Amino acid sequence: MSKGEFARITYEGKIKESGEVFDRGENIPIIIGEGFVIKGLDETLEKMKEGEEKTVEIPPEKAFGERSADLVKLVPLSEFRKNNMNPYPGMVIRADNLYGRVLSVSSGRVRVDFNHPLAGKKLEYKVKIEKIIKDEKEKVLALIEFFSGRKDAEAEIKENSAEIKVKGLPEAVKRKISEHAKKYLGLEKIIFVEEF
To answer: Crossing angle of helices 136-148/171-185, nearest 10°?
Structure first.
């Protein structure tokens, strides 16, 4: 495999230490080397062939990073009260586009951990490359599936453009699909059509 190739993969991710499965996917479309999966898994896929299956250990720096003490913050309880929130240990919150987990609440202060839950963990992935996607239309449909989860779209490729029929995609998703279709398929125009 090489960067920029489209493929469908099946995988299962475990925390090495506990053996707990935290993620799995079957026949998921991705672009190799584009960050559709964590760095360590992307690097492994680049060394594989269609139909090959591998189990690989991925260190924290190629997964969700090391834990950082700087990402554990003390937040005044009053900040939560302003937003009608009653924090408790284990509660997941969102602040400044970061997700955090409340560790403790005491003396008018709330300790919140903004590290990724898997930061600092060694991971083990079992992965298989099910198929390399070569057909242009199939690549467009793969992008729609990856970014929206939708498998009900239709696509037609004409010269340097793609016409996509699918209802109700948010603008941000359409933008992502368009950017990747232009970058990896060399298409100049992406047309989204909704029929009622």
So the answer is: 150
Tokens of 23: 């993620």
Pairing of strands 53-58, 98-106: unpaired
* Domain locations along the chain: 1-65+119-133, 69-113, 135-196
| Tokens 């699918």 sit on residue | 166
pLDDT of residue 96: 80
The pTM is what?
0.83
pLDDT at residue 11 above 90? yes
- DSSP track, 146-173: HHH-----EEEEETTEEEEE-S---HHH
3-state helix, strand, coil in the chain (%, to 5): 25, 40, 35
CATH top-level class of 135-196: alpha beta
